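Lesson 9: reading folded outputs for more than one chain in a single document. The general rule is that every protein is listed as its sequence immediately followed by its structure tokens, and records are never interleaved. Here is the first one.
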Amino acid sequence: MENLFSMKDIITILKKSWLWIVSFAIGGLVTASLVVYFLMTPMFAMNAQVIVSQMETSQNAVSQNAEVQANLQLVNTYRVLITSPRVLDQVSKEMDGAYTSAELAEKITVSTEQDSQVINITAEDKNADTAAEISNQAALAFQKITPKVMKVDNINILSVAQPTKATTPVSPKPGLIGLVGLFGGMLLGIIIAFMRNLLSNKFKEEKDIETLGVPMLGAIGKLPEYQSKDARKGRKNK
């Protein structure tokens, strides 16, 4: 099957349509920037940490290791407990019902490092102070409710979320979105350039006439640029 475009055709089309492509690229960048600054709300993420500590100190190394392993296995259970309705209801109560349990569940993310007894409670909100309050209240509620549910008292708050003036939003990312808009617009411009070429009904080469099944009587080459006598004389005098 014959290719639609040769390498020469591709280069020619791109050269001929470079203004279109650049215009669409700039348009994509401008559109992305407008979306970021006018339609997307900046979101802040604040993080509080709790640690699953050992229940009691033991001089036996084997016993200590067993306790650590048992605590590590409980971490996954604790992760589920943090986002449970019981804990989130307590958080909602402490925040005077500003958010429901379902809304808090969407704002809170719980994560842990591999083989670590530290649990990260991250909350996202459009206000950094509110995100910090949600994260800290979740840590406090988890510390309060765990002994009642798990019959253990080995949860300690390691660090609390504290927003500062230097706190920056985690989303959206203007640079990344702008880059996507730039390349998206450029790609759209290239596609339109090739579509215009495909849909054009002009004869560009001799082979285009062959598709009609009629003989070609002759071809006119490119004429040299005409210059008046005065222009030619002026050029010689120089």
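And here is the second record, again sequence then tokens.
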Amino acid sequence: MEHFFSIIGGMGTIATESYVRLINSRVKIKCDQDYLNYILVNDAQIPDRTAYIKDHTQPDFFPALRSDVLSQAQLKPDFFVMPCNTAHYYYNELASLTDVPFLHMMRIAIHNFIDNYPNEKKIGLIATEGSIYDHLYADELSKVGRQVEFGGPEIQPLVNELIYKNIKEKGIVDAQLFYKILQLMHDKYGCHVILLGCTELSLAQEKAPDHPYNVIDPQSIIADVTIDVALKIRQGIEPQQALKKYMY
């Protein structure tokens, strides 16, 4: 297979499925051959990211990701994409394993926020406890001069319920709970834009988009970037050139 990319997924599987569904549905097609070429590694056995980030006595998820990246690198994909925000805790270590370019989901989402909301100096962030605990998004936003609003102590339990109890455990999206979280971040904490810092939250946005709030959805954004890069490479543009504007 020529001109393909590798998806490092399974964190979680339903969220990865959402990303794949987005890229398949957004490509303009007239025949089967118009779809993108990719290999999906749905490694559902990767240990919980948040558990390890918060407590290093828990199983480390890096060895599994390292194995997946190295095995895929041997196939020489044009680029890697990893549709899991929290797993970017190990982005630098993973990217250093291979010469294959590795898209950075968080940085791409943040630059999308800057481009689309240049006058907004603050963004609300809802995410896993792991992403928040290790300042994954906060540090990246600080680099570009933006402030982060996490909301009060009532926000994270609601986010955890939506991510873990609803989506991960039951495979369902509680739309009203999702809307409640967005409303609190907007009305109570003054967030005119809210960043969905977990792919399960991106799934909630996909399934329940009918709300009035401005969101930055990294999974949706990375899906569009994936399509843009993959089609440019298919048209004969060298991968490094096709990826250039996205390698922040």
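What the second record shows: The chain has a mean pLDDT of 96.
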